[in-house]
Amino acid sequence: MEVDKGKGEAEETRKVAEADRDTVTLKSSDGKLFEVSKEAAARLSTVLAGMIAGGSIDDNGTDLKQIGSEALENVVDYCNKHANSIPSAALISSSISFNTAPFKEPEEWERKFVDRLSHDALFDLVEAANFLGMERLLDVTCHKISEMMKGKSPDQIREVFNIKNDYTKEELEEIRQELAWAFYDD
Amino acid sequence: MRQRKRRCRRAPEYMSEEMIREIMVWLPVKSLLRFRSVCKGWQAIISDGPVFILEHLHCSTSKWEQDPSVLISPHTLDFFLPGEHWPSTFSNHIHFYQWRPSNPRVAKARHQQRTARGLLRLDLSDESFTITALPDAMGNSNACIIDELRGELCLTARCSETTAAATVWAMEVDDEGRQGQWERRYSVLD
After folding, report:
1. In what residue span(s) does the F-box domain sit (chain B) (predicted)?
2. Cβ of B1 under 8 Å from any chain A Cβ?
3. Which positions of chain B have pLDDT values less than 50?
4. Residue among A124, A150, A183 whose CB faces B27 most closely
5. Is B54 in the A-facing interface, judged by CB distances under 8 Å?
6. Total number of domains constituting chain B
7. Which residues of chain A register pLDDT less than 70?
8. Alpha carbon of B64 to those of A105, B16, B43, B61: distances in Å?
9. Among the three residues B47, B64, B81, which one is the final residue of a domain in this structure?
10. In what order do the strands lie in the sheet with B183-188?
């Protein structure tokens, strides 16, 4: 049902893309197609910029086998929202020079954008942002996850990240004693 | 139980070390130290020496577009050279505290129990080191803790090694990192 809907959208998308090539069509690992502004994609993703410049964009949907449809939908949503907001000077420079440009605080819409995501969706989006070389989205999502982690205990962190505790009781106690002050609230 | 597992199906199988690092650079030092006990893999990342520390420093100095103007560290010594007015030797245990003038906050790391001779300042605009003397009345044998107090740089020092009495000093630091004079703010009696 959902796949059909995706295909339907794709037909529309292709027509639009063929009419004027302002957009590119991206295909998720599960075969859904998404349309995104070419300008925004090239500006926000170094990988897509490279593909557009190198002519390896497929009008029938460029395969992004590593990204599921939910994450890709969020990526596209982010690009489209970004295209509609006026980028600040700091934001533009941050993609040019890693060493000197400060990270600009998430704008209101970016904050809302990540706030509404579930843990799973957020983790998927981080991976997608990394895969596509979207530095700004990566910063915003990583920052959101770090916000979520602050003040949590190691136990809570293990639960969220599904990590197995591989320390012995003695080793844990040693760390805890060495860093007793770090175990209070942030 | 089963449902719970489903809910937490992500990571670490999915989350690469690279991604964990990307996230960790945003965490405050205190959280990082605490998360060393999450698992050995995380401990290895966090304790990865200069590389991770530099990444973290870069991130914490650049985030929120509030570059600190100065980094401050207790100026501690390994040894004295005889006859020196200002010591020229430095301990290689340097713990920097970040000072952000427009939103003052000093990372609450407790420094090593070495005797501070002054505060070592690294001015980030020209990367010059200078030393700020400690308050004259503080004496020179007591460890101190650096913190922020109502927008001022604040120093808490015990009056002597044998009592719990302490004095809290504060110094104004403006947006360019220029400093005023130490002023005694509070005395805490034993």
Report:
1. 15-55
2. no
3. 1-12, 64-66, 107-114
4. A150
5. no
6. 2
7. 1-20, 85-104, 181-186
8. 5, 26, 27, 9
9. B64
10. B144-149, B152-158, B166-171, B183-188
